[in-house]
Amino acid sequence: MADELLYWEDFPVGDTMEMGSHTFTEEEMIAFARQFDPQPFHIDAEAAKNSFFKGLVASGWHTCAIAMRLMVLKYIARSASLGSPGLDNIRWLAPVRAGDTIAYRRVITAARASESKPEVGLLQTRWEAVNQRGETVMTMEGWGMFGRRPAGPA
């Protein structure tokens, strides 16, 4: 099945997948934040020392972007993904600092067939990001749309 396209039916409720990990570097954190979230505690190590975080931290959007990249690499690129109607919930629970290695996990929490488009199935998913100390640093919840497996010959 490794080379087969994954359809909605291939993602049962309760299915958990380890998506991989990423180690954040100061250079990467600053580069991302300069472009997308230029707050002082993300882009300036000196200014960050006097912030609420007492040091440089990754943008929460950076942790989300890494999650998206790992999702695509692990399963979305080989699935009948039709995109997403959006996220319902994102929580940044602990700061991510340079040198932190964050492991990402996906859990399917609900599934339903589309009422208006019978060829589409919806999956509700929870993603969790955990640092090397076992602390959950981020959670996201949302829905994805996937093509349903075509009917075989009668």
Low-confidence stretches: none
Secondary structural class: alpha+beta
CA radius of gyration is: 18 Å
CATH topology: Thiol Ester Dehydrase, Chain A
As a percent range, the share of helical residues equals 10-25%
Any idea what the CATH superfamily is called? Hotdog Thioesterase
Number of strands: 5
Structure description:
The chain is an alpha+beta fold and 154 residues long. The chain has one domain: Hotdog Thioesterase (Thiol Ester Dehydrase, Chain A), CATH 3.10.129.10. 23% of the residues lie in helices and 33% in strands. The protein is built from 4 helices and 5 strands; from the N terminus they run βααααββββ. It has helices at residues 26-36, 40-43, 45-49, 60-74, and strands at residues 16-23, 86-92, 101-113, 120-130, 136-147. The protein has a 5-stranded antiparallel β-sheet with strand order 1-3-4-5-2, with helices on one face. β3 (101-113) and β4 (120-130) form a beta hairpin. The longest helix is centred in the middle third of the chain and has 15 residues, at 60-74. It is elongated, with a radius of gyration of 18 Å.
Précis, in short:
This protein has 154 residues and is of the alpha+beta class. 23% of the residues lie in helices and 33% in strands.
